[in-house]
Amino acid sequence: MVTALNKAAIVTDTLEIDPAVAEAASEHFDFMPTGRRIIGDARYEIRQLKDPYDLIILDVFTGGTEPTHLLTVEALTQLHSLLSEHGILALNFVSFLDRGKNTALASVSRTLAQVFSHQQVFISDPGTDFNDFIFLATNHAINLDDDSIPFSNRAWLKQRLLDIDSTHGTVLTDNFSNLELLQIRKSEHYRRMIVDSIGTHHFIR
User: Fold this and answer.
1) How far is residue 51's CA from residue 82's CA, in Å, rounded to a whole number?
2) Least crowded by CB within 10 Å, which of 25, 40, 62, 91?
3) What are the backbone dihedrals phi and psi of residue 176, each rounded to the nearest 5 degrees, phi first?
4) 3-class state of residue 180 by DSSP
5) Are residues 154 and 197 in contact, defined by beta-carbon separation less than 8 angstroms?
6) Which of 61-67's residues contact partners 24+ apart within 8 Å by CB, and which partners?
7) What's the confidence (pLDDT) of residue 205?
8) Which PANTHER family does its entry note (predicted)?
9) pLDDT tens per residue across span 73-86
């Protein structure tokens, strides 16, 4: 993402909890930060930030489980406070769609609605149940017909736009978050995918 944004002359700060991951990104994937490279837990580090951001990308949901403390009303409120007036929070969430009835997906949508007045949800691979879902949360409506968006991009986005029914979801807070429980099936599925892909010898000493 940093590389793609850099091509558009957008300077990007990065935040990573694991210093080994940050080191590997530079040594093995030629990652070059264009802004500040921050190492630490997001809930603590974002409280130290002051400058407003036009775009915040929250993409911490690969692997077997999510750090659920980053998807509560309190965490999203902290991120909201860092956005500029017309800023956008882009959140990537991995789950099943379950014909639009997935409770975890609905809970994320309902929690975002507690903090942001507008949101749009896009499915990465239409027609597939297990998927990446991208939430765009803002204080203003996003017009997908805006002339500043290339026509091909508009068509691509509209094909993936979802209407999420959040009424069967729960509001996730620091005091109560059952997201990890709701995502057990997703975690098991994801781990089976990894084992099927690379085998078990990487996990056994």
Assistant:
1) 7
2) 62
3) -145, 115
4) helix
5) no
6) 61/92, 61/93, 61/94, 62/94, 63/190, 64/187, 64/190, 64/191, 65/180, 65/183, 65/187, 66/93, 66/179, 66/180, 66/183, 67/42
7) 66
8) THERMOSPERMINE SYNTHASE ACAULIS5
9) 999 999 999 999 99
CA distance 99 to 5: 33
Helix (H) or strand (E) holding 54: strand 53-58
Retrieve residue 34's tokens. Answer: 């264009």
d(CA 128, CA 71): 24
Closest CA to 133 of 141, 124, 142: 124
The string of pLDDT tens digits covering residues 115-147 is 999 999 999 999 999 999 999 999 999 999 999
What are the structural domains, with CATH classification, of the chain?
Answer: 41-203 (3.40.50.150)
CA distances from 4 to 28, 31, 137, 157 (A): 18, 12, 21, 18
pLDDT at 114: 97
Cα distance between residue 155 and residue 149, in whole Å: 10
CB atoms within 10 A of CB 121: 21
Minimal CA–CA distance to 90: which of 36, 17, 142, 46?
A: 142
pTM of the model: 0.91
